[in-house]
Sequence to fold (769 residues):
Amino acid sequence: MRGYLVRRLLLAVLTLFGISLIVAGVMRTLPGDVVDVLAAEAFYNDAEKERLREELGLEAPFIEYFGDWLVNALQGDFGRALRTQRSVGDDLVNRIDVTLELAFLGLIIATVISVPLGIVAALQRSRWPDYAARSIAVFALAIPGFWLATLAIVFGAKWFTWSPPLGYQAIWEAPLTNLQQMWLPALLFGLILAGVQTRILRTALLDVLRQDYMLTARAKGLSRVMLLRRHALRNSLIPFITVIGVQFPVVLGGSVVFELIFALPGVGIYLLDGIANRDYIVVQAVNVWIAGAVILTNLIVDVSYGFLDPRIRVSS
Amino acid sequence: MWLAESYERPDDTTWLFNIKENAVWEDREPVNGRNVTAEDVAFSFEEERYGGYPNRGAIQPSLVGVDAPDERTVRFDLSGPLAPFLLYLGHHAGPYVMPPELLVDEMSRQTMISAGPFLLDEYEPGSRVIYKRNPNYFDAPKPYADSLVINFIGDNSAIAAAFLSGELNTTWFGVAPPIVEELENGIPGATWEYQPSLVIGGVFPDLALEPFNDPRVRQAMSVAIDRDAILTVGGALERGQWSTALPPLAGWWVDPKEDDALGEFYRYNPEKAMQLLDAAGVDGLDGVPFHTTTAYGPIFAEQSQVVQANLLQVGISVDLVVNEPTVHYSTIFNGSNTGVIGHTLSVASIEPDEALRNVFIPDSPRSPIPNGELMADDQQMLDLLNAQRTEGDVETRKKLLYDLQLHIASQMYSVPWVNPPISQVARPELSGVQFIQTFAPSPSLEDMWFNDL
Fold:
């Protein structure tokens, strides 16, 4: 296990390096830079733009720029945002909790919705509960998140004179306000995510229910509940957990829509602004963070296989 | 201007200001509540420091020197009379007064020090700014509000929802026309303010690109465009206006719908457009690159399609290119993309001198006109630009500005755009509060301090 983890961590470092290099390179190839954005507001002339580019280090050769960034990043210093001159590390820390909270709540709600729906659909295959559950899943898969969020926020205000409080409050600072702010975006996010999870769980369960050992267990006289809990559900969890792991990067990326509509100052909006402003420093830092989170999640998912199914050994 | 107790102008090129005795910076490092001095003001205007910043250039070309003869007196020496001098002092084109201490260790990039009615309390990037009342404000007991919270909301529906539910007391800018109706009906007693827009914008052909180097072709484009149809796309026909070389909010803008001489250059008239094109020897054009953007919201790009259809009616076929904001700002917005027609908004401006100089001074870094240096041959325009800037008599300046609008229309260096109004809505509890987009000293700004509450 230890050797496996060391190998995965080394691979993670290489992956992070590769992602940083690719993102830095791609950002450089995009037309325009942060000085163009600043100039649009302040109207610098060519000489002034040149001076600003030098001051911000944009004139340095790519290798030199990337090398400096890498050395600083390895020491935990992600630099200052080109546009705002604020510490990117501090800004990220302030925003990560918003996005993580939205992502975790969304995934929890998705699981709470999808597990019963998936079970009902599988056990009642080709009957009306199955059709109903599958319809809900397809609806969740098909509906665009921004549209659902817009409807919810507009009709919430129109019918109930209610919208989430503005100005994000961390859960440890003001739990009640935080929940008032987060429940609606998390619920909608969870509903969207539940579509895939429901379908995967249904398919996995149906697959398990057809196995011979299920027939044996039933012949032994196990109750339907025990059968489901001990044998069917546990054996269906591997594809289900895999999907949640795969969904995590989607959740981090997809949260931007909910952050925008619900005015939540998360990492998604930070990245979007960074790209629009051609703020290479911000974009690189956010991408490294997202990549790190994805690698970590996948590692956790892989390790969890061993606990879910003792036949799987991570060393193999 | 608010800092001044009084001012005098001993001659056309000298201004003396007395700083209010009780004006103090806020009570924290590095100023610790010390007095605002004339030295602070002189420092902020110091030519060397701001000489390299064209965005502070409205006064700069006329500024010979600023000094502080004593602790409370500031003296400005100008190279010649400057008609909008007082206005420039108080709006965004002038330097912001700040204490010199803020330049130590580049502190000005990290913090904000105020002597005004509100102090920065909290800044959450991408979320909100909270200002708190300045207890030592020199014009006490103002401000009457304890705090001012400005929320950044990126979605129109979310703005409307927050307003309907009472999370927002007022909104400024950015409420799309379809949502206006919902808000109007949703809150009994809400008050609405519509203001003319201060944005200049238009269709900017490359002045060196054939056949657009011919003023007749540019005039043809102008009368081929149905400006009211464009306003309809934005849902703002009722209150929308047409720009000339000046935006509607600028002083002495003349409404082309009301003025026959100017109207000739702007009223929708495809037959006249065809005649002008014939006279210029143009018999249809194909594949002209026409660049627009999503930088100003989806409606802007839709309006570009109306222009595309209008031009096609008179035989000019343009290929629409929609640029994302940063590409737009680095090319079309500053006129650096030659060989194309650009469609953009430009600098917000209320002072006619600033509005005109931004766009029509041949070497202006702010102008969206490609190859704008070709305007250097237009001595009549340059003389008029200079004359209005230095003319102190209001009526004479007004006449000069009318002549300028007419002259620029005849040359049609840019084909001016339409201006949907800016709307602001306030809930009943803020009745009477009005944001004025002048960026200038104005008694109306005091309404921001909730006098009526």
Notes: Chain B touches chain A through 43 residues (CB under 8 Å). The first strand of chain B starts at residue 4 and ends at 11. Chain B has a mean pLDDT of 84. Residues 158 and 288 of chain B are 39 Å apart (CA to CA).
